[in-house]
User: Fold this.
Amino acid sequence: MTTSEAKATETRLSGDTLADVLRHWARHTPQALALSGTGASRTWLQTFERATRIAQGLLAAGVRPGERVGYFARNRPEYYEIAFAAAMAGAVLVALNWRLSGPEAASVLEHSEAVVLFAEPDLLEQLPGAEQAHTRTRLVVGLSAGPGPHPGYEPWLARFPAIDPERPAGPADPVLQVYTSGTTGLPKAALFSHSAIRASTGISGITGVGRRSVLLISIPVFHAAGGVMGLIGLSSGAHVVVSADASPEAFGRMVERYRVTMTVVVPTVLHTMAGSAELARAELSSLHTVAYAGAPMPPALQRACLARFGCRLVQLYGSTELIGVTGLAHEDHVDDRHPERRGSVGKPLPGVTVRVVDPESGIDRPEGVLGEVWAKAPTAMIGYWRAPELTAEVLTGDGFVRTGDAGRLVDGYLYLGDRLRDMIITGGENVFPAEVENVLLEHPAIMEAAVVGAPSPKWGETVRAVVVRRPGSEVGAAEVVTFCRERLAHYKCPAVVEFAGALPRNASGKVLRRLLRDSGPK
Assistant:
């Protein structure tokens, strides 16, 4: 065996659980940096010791295998310490959306059945009566300085020995509970096993994340694209930097300070970054790859990002229920022989099977014909927590997940239409909002755009566009319609154009079309 082969063998990830990831890297690269953020950096060995103390604290609190441990805080490196600790204790980690209102967050906490809650004090203050109402929560630990009767995180974990409890767990056991983004109503909680989280490292091939990577996570960790991407980086032995600030200024500072090589963001954040004068002055030479996820990126924004960052651009398509489905490689972003592929979401990730089917019969559509996207992946959820009926609606008997997205396959590339429920049927013709939105965003005076259907006694539905002007622009509705008619079939063009200061979005950056439809004409 050569020296390089021996080295590769030494660092090959062993074990079946998330806890085994931490054990492995603490053993093989103990002094390498694992986590940074909130002013501190910790090596793999330090992270291992802290996670074992937290795990011992969970056991002391009476946490039993399969019980839930809640995280109600902004992005902090402690999230990943707690994730490893929960895995060591045989528990399931649940991150709550801190952007919810107090009553909404209290409802999700109740639904989660968390017996221990790690939280930032100012967020706890938004949960009036939550601890009294949620009788299962036996312990609340404060993650930062602030008023309140709860023990602080650092003194609390220091009370327990740094001994790995080695509580047995299998690859099929649940370890992570992720709430959907809730674009269609009340959120659902997708359950993931150890093996699903471990399989998510298949994304590393297209992103290039490895042991020498420095991965910046600024997407909220309660969202799959944030929390799981950090676990993918850690599973690869990377140094993960966690930031609660996704502004261009903070991004530039983090890249400069930690020599960040890769990050994942949502297109709305990239839109802000592409036009940021502050970021233009930042030293970004360490940046190797920018991945975007959570929403499609218009071609105009793709071009702007390639020019601004001067590094690899990668798209990841997935869902809360599947984590990762397809990826569009950087080579496809710059391939002038096949420019149409820039409008796709790429090819299936390793181990993923994608089908496009008739949503009623489940029969595969011919190549190039639109249908519903179904995917089978090793990263798929076990099911929805406490919702067998909803699980049965989404999971097929042979292991495919019905995504609810419309799409078509061409030469192995997946092209998305929109959510099936977002499709507009006007005069018997199908209109997908994303197609119209991409045209609208080509207009130099338009910063953001969303398209929904509006009731029409004549056509059934007509196309309604809600547009955000760029600062200083006075573009009018007639000019917008004319711009679209020069580029689209007339039935696809907006019949109504409205102007707004901002579009309603959820935490993952997706436009809440439901709110736009509700606010429109009846």
About this structure: The CA atoms of residues 454 and 520 lie 7 Å apart. Residues 423-519 form a domain with the GMP Synthetase; Chain A, domain 3 fold (CATH 3.30.300.30). Residues 1-10 have pLDDT under 50 and may be disordered.
